[in-house]
Amino acid sequence: MPAWGEALVFVACIFGIIGTILPILPGHLLIGSAIAIWAIVERSWVSSAVAACAIAVLLVGSVLTYLIPGKRMNEAGVPGTTILIGSVAGIFGMFVVPVVGLPLFFILGVYSTEVIRLRSHNDATPSTIEAVKGAIVSTAICLTAAGLATTIWAIAAVLT
């Protein structure tokens, strides 16, 4: 692949990493697609193996993004409906208040739902804190997988 093509793959990976932090773009899908296209253009077994490894990392990261925080939140007693309402509020907030709207509205959505459900500020606070911790862990897992997949591809692109 010419240098400009690899530069485009790199830019797509960077946008994918940004998309894992700010869910405007489907980060893992963007990174996986860019690396797969690179492998198709390269037409070698090495590029195919690199793409398979990078995509496997993204798939494992995507699964762990939901499993690990979900388990912790279930153990803490945070219901799925609370997370769903917080997520919907966060997506809404992303458009209402750019940059800070997603986390702000997520926290407000979770807290409001828990106050209504538990009828107490003191009871709602620990659930809200666990939900926020879960969201942070989820983002960290997603970001780690995206960074690792990009690194696998970048090392291969430099060496081949």
Characteristic terms for this protein:
single chain, 160 residues, mainly alpha
Report on the structure:
With 160 residues, the chain is mainly α. The protein is 88% helix and 0% strand. The chain has one domain. α1 (3-21) runs antiparallel to α6 and α2 runs antiparallel to α3. The protein starts with a helix and ends with a helix. The mean pLDDT is 91.
SSE inventory with pairings:
Layout: H1 3-21, H2 27-42, H3 45-75, H4 80-96, H5 101-118, H6 121-159
Helix pairs in contact: 1-2, 1-6, 2-3, 2-6, 3-6, 4-5, 5-6
Number of strands: 0
Return the structural class. Answer: mainly alpha
Overall helicity: over 70%
* Tally of separate domains: 1
Question: What would the average pLDDT be, to the nearest integer?
Answer: 91
Unreliable sequence segments: none
**From the alpha-carbon coordinates, what is the Rg to the nearest angstrom?**
19 Å
Shape: elongated
